[in-house]
Amino acid sequence: MDSSYRRPKLRWPLDIRMHGGAGGPAALVIQCPIGVSEKPLFLAPAVAPLVSLLDGSVTREEIIERFAPQGLTEAILGELVELLDSHLFLANTRFFAAERESRESFEEASVRRAALAGRSYPPEPAKLASMVRGLMATGPGQDPSAIRGEPLCLVAPHIDYGRGGRCYGVTYPHLAGSSASLFVLIGTAHQYSEQLFHLCSKDFETPMGVARCDTEFVAKLASRYGVARSFAGQFLHKREHSLELQLPFLGATRPGVSIVPVLVGSMHSMVARQRAPRDYDVYESFVAALAECIREHEGAGGRVCIIAGVDMAHVGRSFGDTESLTPERMEVVAQRDQEYLGAIARGDAGRLFAHICEDGDARRICGFPTMHTVLDLFARLGRRTSTELISYDQAVDYPGECAVTFAGMVVRAPAHATGG
C-alpha cells in the first residue's frame, strides 16, 4: 500500500476553511490555492477533527481506533482518503507529478490565463465590461481628468468585486488623466515563497483582451536583481488574484498599455526582528534595480505609473483571532487603519514599517510589504507627491467572524513637477 494511504498526509499548500453556518448550511471546504487541482472539495463539518489528523504521523489503524466510538470504519476512512487523493490533496507521488506538470506547463506558456473568469467575475467580455462600467459610474463627483497633477500611483483593493466593487469603481476613474504607457502592477503574493519579489514575463489574459507584458523591461529588471531569484516564484502568478482583479479596470480606463507584473511576499521575519527592509539584500537590491529601470525608461521618453493591488486588515476568528468581532472593535481597527493610511499619504515608508512593528502586524495587513516597497521606490526616485484618500471601506461578516478592510488612493505629482 502507498505510504500516503498507510499514513495519510495532506499536502501543502491547501486552503482549508469552514464556510457557512450561523443559521445556514456549513461545510468544510478544501481548495488548492496554486491551481494544481482546480476543483474544491466540500465535506461535512463533522469530518474536520479527522482531517486535522492527516499529517503523516498517524496510521489509518490509529485513526480508526480513535474515532471508532463515533462510528468511523475502515470503509469510511478509505472513502475519505480516496476522495482527497482524487482531488490531488495528498502528499504523494500522484500529486507531485501533477504539480511538476502544472509548473512546467505554466513556465512554457507565453500567456498567463485568467484564473478568476467565471468565478470572481463574468467570463463573457460584454458582461464584464458592463459590470466594470457600472461600478465606475458611481465614481468621482468631479471629472478626474480636470484634476491637476499626473497620477503616479493608484492604490486599489484586491478583495473580490462583490465586497470591494464600489471601492474599485470610485478609484480607477482617477487614472483618466494618466499619460503613462507602462504600468507596474505590484501586489500581494498570498502563497508562501522563500523569495520576496516575484516577476512574471508573461502577457495576462482577460475576457476583455490581453494585457501585454513589457518583457524588455522585465528582463532588464531581472538581470539587475538576479534572474534566478526573480523568476523562482513565477508560478505564484498562476492563481494570484491581487493583480488579476486590477486588469478589467485598467483595461477600461487605459486600454492598450503595457504591464510589468510584480508580486511581493511576506516581511514577517523583518517585522519580528524589527529590522528595516533596507537592511536585507533581498529587498534592497530589488527596489534599487526597479528605481534604476524606471529612471532609464522615463529618461528615454516613457512614463510609468504604479498600481498597488492591496488590502489592509484581516481580523476575526476566521483569521485566528480569539476576540469576537463587534462594531466597537471595528471602530478601533478603523482608527489604526487611518494611522496606517496617514503614513502612506505622507510617503513615509519608515513610519509605515514602525506602525506594523508596534503590534507585530496584529491586523494582518497583507498589502503592507507592497506599500512599503512603493513608498521607498518614490523616495529613491526623488518624487514629490500629493496623495488623496478616495475611499476607505470595511467588509465585515459578523456571524462569520471575518472582516477585511481596504482603501482606494491616488498618488499624484504636483502639477508643476510631473517629471521624474
Structure notes:
There is one protein chain. By secondary structure, this protein is of the alpha/beta class. The protein has 2 domains: 3-104, Outer Surface Protein A, domain 3; 112-412, LigB-like (Protocatechuate 4,5-dioxygenase, Chain B, 3-Layer(aba) Sandwich). The protein contains 16 helices and 14 strands. It has helices at residues 3-6, 48-51, 60-67, 74-86, 93-108, 125-136, 161-171, 215-225, 227-231, 241-244, 247-253, 268-273, 281-299, 327-345, 349-358, 368-381; strands at residues 15-20, 26-31, 41-43, 111-112, 151-156, 182-188, 197-199, 203-206, 209-213, 258-264, 304-309, 314-315, 386-397, 402-412. The strands form 2 sheets. Strands 4, 5, 6, 7, 8, 9, 10, 11, 12, 13 and 14 form an 11-stranded mixed β-sheet that branches. A 3-stranded antiparallel β-sheet has the order 1-2-3, with no helix packed on it. A hairpin with a 4-residue loop joins strand 13 and strand 14 (402-412). Helix 15 runs antiparallel to helix 16 (368-381).
